[in-house]
Amino acid sequence: MKIVPVDCHYLRPQFAAAYLVHDGRQALFVETNTTRAVPRLLEALQAEGLRPEQVAHVIITHVHLDHAGGCHALMAACPEVTLLAHPRAARHVVDPSRLVTGARQVYGDEAFERLYGHVSPVDARRVRAVADGESLAFGGATLQFWHTRGHANHHMCIAVPEADVLFTGDAFGLAYPELQRAGLFVFPSTSPTDFDAEAALETVDRIAASGLGSALLTHFGAVTDLVSAAAQLRGDLTFAADLVTRAIRSDLPDAALPAWCRQHLGSWFAARAARQGLQPTAAEWEWLALDLDLNAAGVAHRAVRLRNK
Description:
Layout: E1 2-7, E2 17-22, E3 27-30, H1 38-47, E4 55-59, H2 65-68, H3 71-77, E5 82-85, H4 87-94, H5 97-107, H6 109-116, E6 127-129, E7 135-138, E8 141-147, E9 156-160, E10 165-169, H7 197-208, E11 214-217, E12 221-223, H8 226-249, H9 257-275, H10 282-307
Parallel strand pairs: 3-4, 4-5, 5-6, 10-11
Antiparallel strand pairs: 1-2, 2-3, 7-8, 8-9, 9-10, 11-12
Helix pairs in contact: 5-6, 7-8, 8-9, 8-10, 9-10
């Protein structure tokens, strides 16, 4: 079995990956990114000497559009594909209207069109929900599906013991190549609307204890030191959990919490980077602002939800 990472060039190079997996006869993709990335996925397939008709499955770790926005376009190009997803994600692939509406509200129509293009429904007959612990035989290996909450309630990871890898989506953090120059630097994605620090910590521990050699992150690429990565993620997620508690107990109105969380998360991130000898450049801080903004929004959303239960 061969695993080929594909840089989707979403926002910038080496920001979001999809993975082509094949045995020379059959292929599958893990993640699709957006409709803009589908030509890159098909080019990777062709470069491996494979045809679209040989793609048997598309697997998405979760239904956020930078992971699954290109499902319909990729499946239109690959007529034999069945899409595999978490049960809570599968229904949004079949009817993406809520995802599209929410993303347009966040990004605005112009940015949505630039980032995602057209997002269409996938025929329900070509979508299969997979249960926690379910497995799939493929290419002489067994893919094992794990439901992994924390980043999103509809998130799953895919373990392939024979290949010694685990596709982690956003469940095991983000590790941008530009930030690895002072050693491994991983941080979590705590974006809205399902962020749950306790569940995220359980997922990190499960992945770290898997015994597998590599975590293949969507953002971005392989992490081979799972123990060190998990330690970093635990520290960040513990801080985020504490920030949720402090936000709930504060006198701040709900509307003020995102900015308050952003300030504290930004200070924490900068201090942790400095402790590890990493000094992001001005350009890096500019694109890191997107992750920090989303992470703060997720922490604030969690606090508001718990405060108003």
